[in-house]
Amino acid sequence: MNFSAHERARARRYAMQALYQWDLSGTDLPMIRRQFLEAEDFSRTDQKYFIELLSKLPENVDIIDENISIYLDRPIEQLDPVERAVLRLAVYELLFRPDIPYRVTINEAVQLTKKFGAEQGHAYVNGVLDKAAHTLRAAECSKAGKQPARQ
Questions:
Q1: What is the total count of domains within the chain?
Q2: CB-CB neighbours of 40 under 10 Å
Q3: Range of the domain at 60
Q4: Which CATH number does the domain housing residue 101 bear?
Q5: What is the pLDDT of residues 14-29, one digit of tens each?
Q6: Which residues, including other chains, have CB under 8 Å from residue 144's CB and lie 6 or more apart?
């Protein structure tokens, strides 16, 4: 089953909120996942992707954090919790989901940060992810850079 961009975006939004809750409360992620699945309307959401994010991201959080930390101006623990959750989600996609274009990942992360983060958090997230994408998706970024601008 193919999901629309909106259904995938909704899965990211719920996953970011669940990861935020996990990060701040230390609550067991399977319990948080159950709470979200019971409380939210998943009828127009890529539920499979939501579940993937909540299971695979924590398994790889050390690798993800290493790949984020390179581009930060402070320790990852000092980031705003929303920005940290969004960056983790986006870097997971950059590392493990090459089927998702890096520009989509960055755009979705910026939109989530605009909606839930601090006032200028989206600019910070955009800068970090742009640098990360040029390393983690170097071939894709260089190919994108050679394409003529659309009229």
A1: 1
A2: 16
A3: 5-146
A4: 1.10.940.10
A5: 999 999 999 999 888 8
A6: 102, 103
